[in-house]
Amino acid sequence: MKMFRRHRRLRKNQVIRDMVKETVLNRQDFIYPLFVVEGKNIKKEIPSLENNYHYSIDRLEEIVQEIKKSGVKSVILFGIPGYKDEVGTSAFEKDGIIQRAVRKLRELYPELYIITDVCMCEYTSHGHCGILHGHEVDNDETIKYIAKIAVSHAEAGADMVAPSDMMDGRVKAIRDALDENGFKDVSIMAYSAKYCSAFYGPFRDAADSAPKFGNRKGYQMDPANIREAMLEIEDDIKEGADIIMVKPAMPYLDVIRWAKDKFDVPVAAYNVSGEFAMVKAAAQAGLIDEKAVAEEMLTCIKRAGAGMIITYYALDICRWIKEENNY
Ligand code: PBG
């Protein structure tokens, strides 16, 4: 008699289901994006990112308490500066918004692992991720600035810098500059496969970083391409990236999987603002169970190969994990 396999045996109850589970979310998997603004006494909900806030430096302590309570160990910082100019000067000033935020966070929570997003779009008057020549972003000029920004973050005390500009050669420029300035232990997480995605919409509202003309197609990747993503990743690793990232996450699980299979450095994924906003909106419309969908989405991103996930759900998911595990 030809037998069939009884797959359902291993789904019989929660104990056995948990034992055969291939992907388990841990609190250390998550990185929380934190937005810091100039000004005083500001904690203001970001309209496009429900339950995420703009904090002024003097109120960072409140979110630090929440981060501690949730068990999240790491944040990635985004700054909204007091002024913008053509070359993004406020991105690399000693007392810029990120530099002060890093110092404050270090003081409030010394063990917090602080990652800084290194880019120019929040700091330039034109909203592009680099230095313009006419309407073109000048690659080789931009990477000098990108390196300068990274060094200023390291000087403030960042553990890791994460360039998101998608210029060629930026990882090498940053590594060289960090090493020359005595920051050989500051790591680089490269946004290597960063796609030109419409899923960044809510973030650009939150960070006031939308380009004032044109788009980012001249530097961010075409969503249609995956082999090109492997080239980007390969080059970033050769240039000195410690961790590579795929962004967005949910519609790009194949890219995460290819990256994980082909390369031996840790792979991160960015579950971006549009992915988060869609889940929130659908939940509010009564169409889905928010917690269940968020857990499923993040589990699948991890299953695809991401060892770490940047998500606006970081605090929630870590709280849920804590509750479910009773610790
Ligand atoms: C800066 C940057 C962006 C995001 C992270 N860093 C926006 C962009 O490239 O326009 C998007 C994050 C998100 O959507 O959650 N370059």
Brief synopsis:
With 327 residues, the protein is of the alpha/beta class. It has 11 helices and 12 strands.
Topology:
Layout: H1 14-19, E1 30-37, E2 43-45, E3 53-56, H2 60-70, E4 74-80, H3 97-108, E5 113-118, E6 132-133, E7 136-137, H4 139-156, E8 160-163, H5 170-180, E9 187-194, H6 201-207, H7 227-239, E10 243-247, H8 253-262, E11 267-271, H9 273-284, H10 290-304, E12 308-311, H11 314-325
Parallel strand pairs: 1-3, 1-4, 1-12, 4-5, 5-8, 8-9, 9-10, 10-11, 11-12
Antiparallel strand pairs: 2-3, 6-7
Helix pairs in contact: 2-11, 3-4, 4-5
The chain binds ligand PBG.
Ligand PBG binds next to helix 6.
InterPro entries: ALAD, ALAD_AS, Aldolase_TIM
Binding site for Zn(2+): 119, 121, 129
Function: Catalyzes an early step in the biosynthesis of tetrapyrroles. Binds two molecules of 5-aminolevulinate per subunit, each at a distinct site, and catalyzes their condensation to form porphobilinogen.
